[in-house]
Amino acid sequence: QILAVAAGGTLHQHLPDVLGHEKHRPAPGVYGSHPARFAAGSRIAGLLGERTEVATYHHQAVDHLPDSVDATGWADDGTVEAFEVRAAGWAVGVQWHPEVHDGAALFRAFVEACAMWRDADPSRRTTVRP
Predict the structure, then answer these.
(1) What DSSP string describes 32-72?
(2) Helix or strand or coil: residue 97?
(3) SS3 68
(4) Secondary structure class of 45 (helix, strand, coil)
(5) pLDDT tens for each residue of 101-118
(6) What's 67's DSSP letter?
(7) Contact 24/56 with Cβ under 8 angstroms?
(8) Does the pLDDT of residue 130 top 70, yes or no?
(9) C-alpha span between 65 and 83 (Å, rounded)
(10) pTM of the entire structure?
(11) What is the C-alpha to C-alpha distance for residues 18 and 6, in angstroms, rounded to an integer?
């Protein structure tokens, strides 16, 4: 949600008012899950396939994305679940909680993209000292 707004997008402030259900946040403090489908050829589809189950717990969601950002994933109810910033080397936003369920591929791709960015310019390398 933060990345979407920082890129110039807007949010639905209370998703249940838009959708008429609480499936994206089934109970206080309890993660739900639902399927998400991804655009063919998108970075997220390349990582997770065209469809996967995602962990969910939110009452806000993307309403509008600017022209520089592509929605690339959706819940069955049409909620945007993933997007990609076209001009960025690697900028993928997800609505769900990959830290809760099966997010290793997404985190691994992010770390690999960070390492490639770092290695492209030796001045970005730092030494970690104890």
Answers:
(1) EEEEEEE-TT-HHHHHH-SEEEEEE--S-EEEE--TTEEEE
(2) coil
(3) coil
(4) helix
(5) 888 999 999 999 988 888
(6) T
(7) yes
(8) no
(9) 9
(10) 0.86
(11) 22
